[in-house]
Input
Amino acid sequence: MRKPRYQIIRDHLLDEIEGGRLRAGDRVPSENELVSRFGVSRMTARRALQDLADAGFLLRTRGLGSFVADSRPMSSMLEVRNIADEIAERGHRHSTRVLTLESVAADGELSRHFDVEPGTVIYHSVLVHRENDVPIQHEDRYVDPRIAPDYLAQDFREITPNVYLSEVAPLAEADHVVEATTAPPAVARALDIPEDAPCLRVTRRTFSRRALVTVARLTYPGNRYRLGTHLDFRPPDRRVTNNRRQET
Output
């Protein structure tokens, strides 16, 4: 059975991307260029490009064109998600290396975060999350033992802190700060990247209804991960109209 013409264009562009001839950030041929090259209608060319955009291979910007999307995994900036679920959704395997699991005395900064006296016992864990055995996140986390008393007894090779803490202290609020930074020596070794390699660091505080539960510093190698989100500012009735058009 002969392929639809839009699919021929789609497969051609996908071959160019997967073969490395079109790289992340490269502009792909415009609708008009595809019309001329393949002898199709503009609607057919538009459908091919939109299919690739919907599948995450292209980013389309009105007035500028279509560009090859960054293939690095992306985590949302507006959600607190279990990293194991993110990796599983990409069809990959998650594993965890536990570096530290201990009780520590709260210093001045931690005592202010958790509203305790300096020297109060706080739980501390350092983990490395891996995707298909490649380190993608260094997780340095402090937890209030009053809220999660069994934290240190968990096997974080089998369950992530996110899953355990969500069970014992359901998330009510969170705040986070995203920074461009470099990897200090210990983090670089854990992530198997050069010292001072560019990284993204998310400092996140999560709260239950009772109090602050945890403070975590999540470090991602800049060449393996990215953070982002999609925002839709259209009024709800406009979105419904557009969805109906797409279905017809």
Q: What stands out?
A: Strands lie at 58-61, 65-68, 74-76, 94-105, 121-131, 134-143, 173-182, 198-207, 212-221, 226-228. DSSP finds eight helices and ten strands in the chain. Confidence is low (pLDDT under 50) at residues 239-248. Residues 5-18 form the longest helix (14 residues).
